[in-house]
């Protein structure tokens, strides 16, 4: 059996013996919208939650939060209809600012903006990359019920009309992305993100959960304090194509979108696997370890204890976090990582090492990437020369009756064990 697994902007090929039970864990591909711009315009014509754009006709400033290069948001379809509406309200171009919601990622350089925004938008509007550690550009808005101190981008917070743009898809501990998250986390200060992400250790902070998820509900409260007015969110298929678009009050958008996202992303499996071949889904899901780790987390849900997970992720930009890399280097085992992380207390960056160690300690992890082999070994990622070599090693250790699973788009798939 020959398989192609998404890897960077291409694929990796691997051959499996014909007598193996191999399951491709992926929902059926949903056809994309035939006219994405029409779907976006329809969403803006049918705003959810009682929102009326004419309310903001007198806005002197508009802040639009957009995701950075680590998210495959179809801005080329979402933004032109939105900007048309803002123009029709009489809002001039110079009143509109795009804020690149990087969260704790490295702020994007202006030279990188064409990777996420059409050139005609860059020529017309001001674009600013957020920096979570620039305290002079943050505003304090109080605390959430969970005790999270809310620091948010000053320029965005003080905008008369605040909009978020993004995708709604599964998230490993916030349940789902989308809604206010692009602003609540993407434009937050480091302290805010640190407090919110510490909730990932709560047992109810689970993939695919919303109402009972403390991390996600904390995000909602942050969004309320920021006073985000409008969400414009896309739901994509596994080929990163628009299936549906929703717009309106951010919470109303989430409630309408989550059942659709579940139908597209959730797959039930009958038993756990002895070997799981997992790809986050190719670029930009595997742009660095910080993003690619989700492929390990999702695979861990349906791999038997002691089984093998092979993570195929190109990671052309390396770890994606100096805070993670500096802290993780020098640790000798997953147990060391877990113990030191608990002793230090929750911190953004080291939390990524903890997430990896928490899952990898239960399985045998092998990592196929473009990264330097010495660095990946020092980070306890167990590098292998290529995917076929990793598979051959794993097959030799399969238990009798073990099945092999393949997650081609792990980061956007919710695998559930129905056994």
Account of the protein in words:
The protein is α/β, with parallel strands linked by helices. The chain folds into two domains: 2-28 and 270-417, LarA, C-terminal domain (2-enoyl-CoA Hydratase, Chain A, domain 1, Alpha-Beta Complex), CATH 3.90.226; 36-265, Rossmann fold. Helix content is 32%, strand content 24%. The chain has 14 helices and 19 strands. It has helices at 36-45, 75-88, 119-124, 154-157, 181-184, 190-197, 214-226, 250-265, 289-300, 322-328, 334-344, 350-360, 373-378, 387-396; strands at residues 2-7, 10-15, 22-24, 62-67, 96-101, 126-129, 138-143, 149-153, 161-167, 170-171, 175-176, 230-236, 242-248, 266-269, 273-278, 303-312, 364-368, 404-407, 414-417. Strands 6-5-4-9-12-13 form a six-stranded mixed sheet, with helices on both faces. It has a five-stranded parallel sheet with strand order 3-18-15-16-17. A two-stranded antiparallel sheet has the order 1-2. A hairpin with a 2-residue loop joins strand 1 (2-7) and strand 2 (10-15). Helix 9 (289-300) runs parallel beside helix 12 (350-360) and helix 11 packs across helix 12 (350-360). It is globular and about 70 Å long.
The count of β-strands is 19
Overall residue-averaged pLDDT value: 96
Oligomerization status of the protein chains: single chain
User: Count of helices?
Assistant: 14
- CATH architectural category of the largest domain: 3-Layer(aba) Sandwich
The CA-CA distance between the termini, in Å, is 26 Å
CATH superfamily grouping of the largest domain: LarA, N-terminal domain
């Amino acid at each position: 059996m020959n398989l192609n697994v998404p890897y960077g902007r291409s694929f990796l090929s691997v051959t499996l013996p014909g007598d193996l039970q191999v399951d491709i864990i992926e929902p059926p591909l949903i056809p994309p919208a035939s006219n994405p711009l029409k779907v976006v315009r329809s969403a803006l014509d049918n705003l959810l939650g009682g929102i009326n754009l004419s309310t903001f006709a007198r806005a002197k400033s508009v802040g639009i939060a957009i995701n950075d290069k680590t998210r495959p948001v179809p801005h080329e379809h979402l933004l032109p209809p939105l900007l048309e509406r803002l123009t029709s309200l009489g809002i001039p171009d110079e009143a509109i600012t795009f804020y690149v919601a990087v969260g704790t990622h490295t702020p994007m350089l202006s030279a990188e903006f064409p990777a996420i925004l059409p050139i005609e938008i860059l020529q017309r509007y001001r674009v600013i990359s957020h920096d979570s550690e620039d305290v002079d550009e943050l505003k304090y808005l109080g605390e959430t019920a969970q005790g999270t101190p809310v620091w948010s981008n000053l320029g965005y917070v003080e905008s008369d009309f605040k909009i978020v743009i993004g995708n709604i898809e599964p998230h490993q501990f916030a349940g789902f992305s989308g809604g206010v998250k692009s602003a609540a986390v993407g434009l937050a200060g480091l302290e805010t993100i640190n407090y919110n992400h510490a909730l990932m250790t709560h047992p109810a902070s689970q993939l695919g959960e919303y109402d009972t998820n403390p991390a996600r509900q904390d995000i909602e409260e942050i969004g309320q304090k920021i006073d985000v007015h409008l969400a414009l969110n896309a739901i994509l298929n596994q080929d990163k194509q628009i299936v549906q678009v929703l717009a309106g009050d951010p919470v109303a958008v989430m409630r309408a979108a989550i059942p659709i996202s579940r139908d597209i992303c959730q797959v039930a499996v009958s038993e756990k696997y002895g070997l799981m071949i997992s790809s986050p889904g190719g670029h930009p899901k595997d742009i660095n370890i910080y993003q690619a780790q989700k492929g390990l987390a999702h695979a861990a849900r349906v791999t038997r204890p002691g089984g093998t997970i092979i993570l195929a992720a190109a990671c052309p930009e390396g770890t994606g976090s100096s805070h993670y890399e500096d802290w993780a280097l020098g640790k000798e085992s997953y147990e060391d990582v877990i113990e030191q992380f608990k002793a230090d207390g929750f911190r953004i960056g080291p939390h990524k090492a903890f997430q990896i160690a928490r899952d990898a300690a239960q399985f045998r992890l092998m990592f196929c990437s473009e990264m330097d082999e010495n660095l990946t070994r020092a980070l306890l990622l167990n590098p292998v020369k290529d995917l076929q070599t990793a598979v051959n090693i794993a097959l030799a250790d399969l238990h009798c009756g073990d099945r092999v699973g393949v997650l081609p788009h792990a980061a956007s798939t919710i695998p559930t064990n129905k056994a």
